[in-house]
Amino acid sequence: MKLVHNIGYFLREVANIINMNLLSNLLSVLGTGLILFLLGLVITGWNISSKVVETLQKEAEISAYFNETVTYNKAEEMIEYINSIDGVENARLVSETEAFSRMQDILGEEAKILELFDENPFEAYTEVRINLEEMDFVLNQISIMEGISYVRDNKAVLEQVQRLTRGLNMISYLVMIAVGITTLVIISHLIRQSIYNNKDQINTLRLLGAPDSFIGFPFLLSGILLTLTGGILATIFIVFLINMGYNQLTGALPFIPLPNRGTLLLKLSVLLPAISIFLGVLGSIFGLYKER
Amino acid sequence: MISAKGVSLRYKDGTLALKDVTMEIKPGELVFLTGPSGSGKTSFLKLLMGMEYPTTGTLTVIGQLITKEEVKNIRKLRKSIGPIYQEFKLIDGRTSLDNVMMGMRFLDIPSKKIKKIAEEAIERVHLEQKKNTLVENLSWGQSQRVAIARAVARKPALILADEPTGNLDYENAINILQLLYSFVDSNTAVIITTHATHLIQNVPHATCIEVEEGKLRIIKGEARVDETRT
Ligand SMILES: Nc1ncnc2c1ncn2[C@@H]1O[C@H](COP(=O)(O)OP(=O)(O)OP(=O)(O)O)[C@@H](O)[C@H]1O
Ligand SMILES: [Mg+2]
């Protein structure tokens, strides 16, 4: 088919089709824009939460506390051994003073409470960073060591976070499906409406022998154009929102591990328009197909 | 070019619009279909364009069998036909020129030539001044001429003109008819329906077929209409 040569004609047809039902077309653009914006929000939330999980997983650690009998030299030896266990990334000694000053950092303004103690209430311990997958094995290896009084891990917290993200992923998938279906319904309905409005012209073209691809192409194009406009609107809003959010969050909550802003923005401004084009094509084809 | 054997057409409501038509039309023929209103002239043209299918009998147009199963191929066949409808079927919201060009865009005509051919066709029907006018603003006779321009610009092998002289004054009617005759050549057949028998009496080499209550009866000319069957 002579798509390229007729492109001027097709574009004029698209303008005609959209003009014929301008208000409902504009509303559909807003509607799909809003829906795709929701999708953008979910994708953003998804990105942030998986970044949090990723960061937390790197934080998988065990604290091992010593018996009173363990001397400094003995402790050094034990740490050397722990470092050789499979799955241990790094083990180091945290002295009493370091433990104290860490707590001071954590408490911040509340650190005054520590002054109530006559002497440092903290004891030295080993901080062991590990692979999350090897947690159980390493835990077991360390706890059976002589001179270790007890071990503490943050496994429970990590598992809870993981469960949370799994839930979030579920929601994301559901939202994606909902967005997909809604956009398809809106667009296919719109295309059918346009086809109905143009039925005399379509009928005449058929009588003149025009192939369905020639007749349908402007409708396909207008479907794509409408969803793409919605997609671009959604992208503009989400980019705006993310920029605002990052500016606020990085000031107020510096410890939240946010994904790289540029990467996230790029991802969204490619993904949303791409999804909208895909849905536009599919929706228009449904609309055209039902009208046969 | 056209071959009908025992063709009849019964509409859904039971009207028998054509009865047992057997006939043949060759390339290069000029055929007039005359007959009273409601006799079946338009119905016959509809069959030739595949807008209706024969209820009985066999009909082939430019080698294409007209049956329901052949829809796809009939769509292709229509590219070789230049139809001029009784009610024009122009596309509103477009200019005369756009309407003519619209009929050519999906044919095997180089796209660069489309506009030039369309303009020539518009000139042949003397509508140069109206080529950029929206068709809904044209007079009846002007609309008819746009319809003719759209049909002939396609350089079809078969021109089917339904009442192209209806409502036109004598002079314009003669002009239109002469224009249509001019497209008859060794490859092109032209079929014209008309009430105006007085306009066509002296046309040489024309075949006149009278349609009466769905039956075709040859009055003069070369086309063979088999009347032995009833
Ligand atoms: N779609 C249809 N459904 C039912 N009956 C129809 C249909 N189209 C035409 N008819 C009937 O078929 C008969 C032939 O109609 P047709 O339009 O072929 O006549 P015609 O010779 O073209 O008349 P005119 O000179 O008025 O245009 C008429 O009785 C008409 O009412
Ligand atoms: Mg008629």
Characterization of this structure:
The complex is a heterodimer of chains A (292) and B (230). By secondary structure, chain A is of the alpha+beta class. Chain A contains nine helices and four strands. The model of chain A has no long low-confidence stretch (mean pLDDT 83). Chain B has a single domain (2-92, 143-225), classed as Rossmann fold, CATH 3.40.50.300. Chain B is built from seven helices and eleven strands. In chain B, α3 (96-102) crosses α4, α3 packs parallel to α5 (140-153) and α4 (111-124) crosses α5 (140-153). Chain B is globular, with a radius of gyration of 17 Å. Chain B starts with a strand and ends in a 5-residue tail after the last strand. The relative contact order of chain B is 0.21. The site of adenosine-5'-triphosphate has 13 residues of chain B, from α1. Residues 41-42, 86, 162 of chain B line the site of magnesium ion.
Contiguous runs where pLDDT drops below 50 for at least 5 residues of chain B: none
Main structural class of chain A: alpha+beta
Give a short account of the largest sheet of chain A.
4 strands, antiparallel
The number of helical segments of chain A is: 9
Mean pLDDT, all residues of chain B: 89
What is the 3D shape of chain B?
globular
What is the CA-CA span between the terminal residues of chain A?
Answer: 20 Å
Query: What's the helix-strand series of chain A?
Result: HHEHEHEHEHHHH
Helical run tally of chain B? 7
Terminal Cα span of chain B: 23 Å
Strand order in space, largest sheet of chain A: 2-3-1-4
Task: Report the portion of residues of chain B in β strands.
Answer: 25-35%
Count interface residues per chain for the largest interface.
A-B, 18 and 24 residues
Helix proportion range of chain B: 25-40%
Overall residue-averaged pLDDT value of chain A: 83
Oligomer: heterodimer
Low confidence ranges of chain A: none
Indicate the CATH topology of chain B. Answer: Rossmann fold
Give, in order, the helices and strands of chain B. EEEHEEHEHHHEHEHEEE
